[in-house]
Specification:
nine-stranded mixed beta sheet, seven-stranded parallel beta sheet, 25 helices, 24 strands, globular, binds adenosine-5'-diphosphate, binds magnesium ion
Length: 733
């Protein structure tokens, strides 16, 4: 039987029912799943160290104090060693044996030990040479390796320079998976067809899928690995952008009411300020969409405080003037209420009826509102309804819904947008987002929408003064917290971890199969100790005994969290130590100091969101980023925060320094999913912005020419995209 990409893994040699079950629990069912099960890291075994070099590396071990009898170690590395004498073998006790021998290279001798592997007696003989991979330990001047990986070395046989490290699960080993994947690749290599059209591959200097797959698993060398990763990174961004562009074209084919007339002056005259030029521009863009006859699908992106509500009010006013209704949805009841109390008087004075519709409105009143929304009689009809997502539930119907505005604090997935479109068929749609997105990425994340950007703050906003400091400022920082209290203000302290245990976990996981080419993590800062919220709260309480210190973190029960937040809001606690749970929806105007511990751990956009929690009142506010970060990259990132308060600029710099991963985190992961793995696996950390914009632009051009991907050379791509994207773009459009 020939093996195809669709064959079950059990068709491969060495896969019985037990192994098949293990593979299935890792999400690997078919041969295709197997060849797309990518390494999570690589061991650079081609970079062989001498015993002398390894000893020197151990001597640099910073985690030890260097006290008498302490062992020092270095990250795992490769050695080329010759066995010096026949191994010493001993049963220590029942079921426990030890095998030990010395091995040498041209710089010295080291001691190698294996436990409970008696058969290795027949492997290691005097004079034979092996490549070993393991963590060197320096013990009283002797270099030791415990249970290293070993590969027989001869002049002729070429050992792989870079060895993959796979995500595993019970019943699988690295060696087994690697062998199986190699076999699978060989079996189906000739069947692997590239879904990217030749023109795209050539135009962007990308390697072929077959080459990329082979080299992502078994790289010939570092360049081949880079070339494979680059192709996959491009692929992810290109397909996502193409899908979004196709969805957008599909939407534009629909029709929607034409709002051809509008006079905004009566509304604008009531506002106590003039619109900023960014607000004016956005209103113009919206007005043009509403007059076009095809449905508006627009997102208004603007930092917190940039004045999105006024723009939304103008859009609503245009719909109302043209005889249609507007539904305005907020993510929470509180925000819906806020919008209602702000907008309702404005529109009532202009002669329009409005209502608030949320879950807590009594049933009888709800029924009345439902009736008034569905009424054909203009005199009793509600024109503007403000509420939560419940507004679009089946029980609510509108007599003339013309515009749906969604105020999302956070990102709004393409699937939710599709759902919204179904509910509000013929209506125009405006989505508001408070997360500044870099321009190039917006086409991947919001490519199905037109984008308006409020990139200008209303005048007179205070800037939050921001400083980056290290641990040596600890005492001054404590004094600064006390000073806020003396002036009647409060302090937030954000920590990256909840409790001590969290730190241990990460390191334990990483020690065993350490990789020196780890493309998923910023490994340089990985070893910095993390401040935990629980401990840090106790510390602050001990150095500030007369202040009240509160604590909020994600593992607390909702009621506890709320209580702690409430106490801070009411000023009963002076300091609130928390994890990033406070990112959303908190407003405590008397808080004037934001301290972020282990600031190197956070993305810039996240730091920006956190900083946005202060500077909401009249008093001068501060943000202090505490970090002992050592890398240049970390220092640069923190410097950006000190330099600017502009969310868009920060987003651009974040993209440049860390890659797009932080922006994909919530939104896109749920929508684009490849082979069960994370969707933007390769592009998440890819901070080459040229590649990103090339991918996005190529996708845009291709879809403009062939919107349905029906040309012969694009058909494979069309199938690939609709298979890859969970909510197939064919059904959306
Ligand atoms: P967000 O974009 O976060 O929703 P809001 O719409 O709530 O921002 O506006 C924040 C504050 O700025 C409000 O108090 C609003 O009245 C005020 N504001 C909005 N536009 C302007 C402007 N052009 N000039 C001055 N103040 C403005
Ligand atoms: Mg708002």
């Amino acid at each position: 039987m020939t093996i195809t990409v669709n064959s079950p893994v059990s068709a491969l040699r060495g896969v019985g029912p037990a192994k098949a079950a293990s593979l299935a629990s890792a999400g690997i069912v078919t041969v295709n799943d197997l060849i797309h099960h990518y390494p999570r890291a690589y061991q650079n075994r081609g970079d062989v160290k001498t015993i002398l070099e390894a000893a020197a590396l151990c001597n640099q071990d910073k985690t030890k104090t260097g006290g008498a009898g302490e062992k020092q170690s270095a990250p795992p590395c490769a050695f080329l060693l010759t066995v010096a004498a026949e191994p010493y073998y001993k049963m220590i006790r029942r079921g426990m044996s030890i095998l030990r021998f010395r091995a040498f290279d041209e710089t010295g001798v080291c001691e190698i030990t294996f436990f409970n592997q008696p058969y290795l007696r027949d492997v290691f003989h005097t004079g034979s040479t092996f490549r070993f991979w393991g963590r060197p330990v320096l013990d009283k001047g002797t270099l030791k390796l415990a249970s290293p990986i070993h590969e027989a070395w001869t002049e002729e046989a070429k050992l792989a320079p870079i060895v993959p490290v796979y995500p595993l699960c019970a019943g699988l080993t690295q060696k087994y998976l690697a062998t199986l994947i190699r076999e699978a690749l060989q079996a189906v290599a000739s069947q692997i067809t590239d879904h990217l059209p030749p023109e795209i591959l050539q135009g962007n200097h990308l390697c072929l899928l077959r080459y990329a797959l082979t080299n992502i698993h078994f790289p010939e060398d570092r360049e081949a690995l880079e070339s494979a990763r680059r192709r996959f990174a491009f692929d992810e961004l290109f397909c996502a952008a193409a899908a979004m562009a196709a969805i957008k074209i599909g939407k534009k084919r629909g029709s929607a009411p034409r709002f051809s007339r509008h006079v905004l002056a009566p509304l604008l005259d009531q506002l106590p300020y003039c619109l900023t030029s960014a607000q004016e521009r956005s209103v113009r863009e919206i007005a043009a969409d509403l007059a076009s006859g095809s449905p508006m699908c627009r997102i208004l992106c603007g930092d917190v405080g940039s004045g999105k509500t006024a723009v939304a009010a103008c859009a609503a006013y245009i719909a109302l003037q043209n005889g249609y209704q507007c539904a305005f949805m907020a993510p929470t009841e509180i925000l819906a209420q806020q919008h209602y109390s702000e907008l309702s008087p404005l529109f009532e004075s202009l002669g329009y009826r409005s209502a608030l519709l949320t879950g807590s409105i009594p049933a009888t009143k709800k029924r009345k509102i439902h009736a008034a929304l569905a009424s054909e009689n203009k005199a009793e009809r509600i024109d503007l309804v403000i509420g939560t997502h419940a507004l679009l539930s089946d029980t609510v119907s509108f007599s003339a819904l013309g515009l749906v505005i969604t105020d999302e604090q956070h990102r709004f997935g393409v699937n939710q947008r599709a759902l919204l479109r179904e509910k509000a068929e013929q209506a125009h749609m405006l989505v508001m987002s408070a997360t500044p997105i870099p321009r190039t990425l917006s086409l991947v994340l919001f490519g199905d929408l037109d984008i308006s950007r409020l990139d200008e703050m209303p005048p007179g906003r205070q800037k939050v003064s921001t400083f980056a400091v290290d641990e040596s400022y600890r005492d001054r920082l404590t004094g600064f917290i006390r000073k806020q209290k003396e002036e009647g203000h409060q302090t937030y302290v954000v920590c990256p971890a909840i409790e001590e245990k969290q730190k241990a976990k990460k390191t334990a996981e990483d020690t065993e199969e350490l990789a020196d080419i780890d493309f998923f993590a910023d490994t340089a800062e990985e070893s910095l100790p993390l401040k935990s919220a629980t401990e840090h709260a106790a510390f602050l309480q001990s150095v500030l005994p007369d202040l009240a210190v509160g604590l909020v973190h994600g593992k607390m029960k909702a009621a506890e969290k709320e209580q702690a937040m409430d106490a801070f809001y009411k000023g009963e606690t002076d300091v609130l130590v928390c994890t990033t749970v406070i990112e959303v929806g908190v407003n405590v105007p008397q808080a004037t100091l934001m301290i972020i511990e282990n600031a190197e751990r956070f993305g810039l956009s996240q730091l920006h969101q956190l900083r946005g929690r202060v500077g909401r009142g009249k008093a001068k506010s501060y943000c202090v980023l505490v970090s002992n970060a050592i890398t240049e990259a970390s220092r640069q990132r923190l410097a950006v925060m000190c330099r600017t308060n502009d969310g868009f600029q920060i987003a651009e710099e974040d993209l440049l320094l860390r890659g797009p991963g932080d922006f994909f985190a919530s939104e896109a992961e749920g929508t684009f999913r490849q082979h069960g793995g994370p969707a933007f696996l390769f592009s998440a950390g890819w901070n080459d912005t040229d590649l990103i914009s090339d991918a996005v632009q190529s996708a845009g051009r291709l879809i403009a020419r062939d919107p349905d991907l029906s040309l012969p050379e694009n058909r494979l791509l069309g199938t690939y995209i609709s298979d890859t994207i969970r909510h197939s773009f064919h059904t959306i459009s």
